[in-house]
């Protein structure tokens, strides 16, 4: 997990120079209610059938959570349009289920708990340009990676420096500060419309090899007519703050997928679906107690 593809080929994406496979876990999320499908958000592949994204991508403040049948995802793509013959490495799948924390209430709750787990209809096949990002919920590891000024990668080629939360609040417009909720971190300059849900990943050396770990999910940024304003900050939902929510669904994967994933993260593989609380009890009996 978390390995970028070596010796990538230079390509132009939306005016930026990128390398194919530079972030092989990044997926595009498309709304199927238009023809052709329209890309609305991004996400990060963590297993061959699970994507982590932002809850607000699948939410309407009036009708609330939108049905999974409205969405599809694609990975290994270079070009934004859903169907592009030059995307020879692309893999696609409809979305089977969308899981959102019950506390998430969109703008009414200042986008607290802005995280979503997508379960795919079709499992992706790991290849040169399709690989998962790493997950780790160790708090000390998280703190070591999240140091002011340390660079993380998001989407294609943007490197964003981590910003201390106090500095983030002070540097943000007064009307935006209420959206920097307790489960948020801040980084870099603002992103563009359509970047929501993309993952902020930081590298960690593993026996001389850099592996990228998912630390945040693009959530909110100050409102601005210039949708790609480079002189402001973006808030990200912090992954480690949602450990239980993520593990609840990772533990209910198909047996084979879960046991492969278990080698990368300490998660209990349930033989068949069960409630979150039952899963916690079984997890706690097999591992160190979960943090509360």
UniProtKB/TrEMBL annotation:
Sequence ranges assigned to domain Peptidase S1 in this UniProt record:
12-251
The name on file for this protein is Peptidase S1 domain-containing protein
The GO molecular function terms of this record are: serine-type endopeptidase activity
Q: Where are the transmembrane segments?
A: none
InterPro entries recorded: CLIP_Serine_Protease, Peptidase_S1_PA, Peptidase_S1_PA_chymotrypsin, Peptidase_S1A, Trypsin_dom, TRYPSIN_HIS
Q: Which PROSITE patterns does the entry link to?
A: TRYPSIN_DOM, TRYPSIN_HIS
Note the SMART domains from the entry.
Tryp_SPc
- Name the Gene Ontology biological process terms: proteolysis
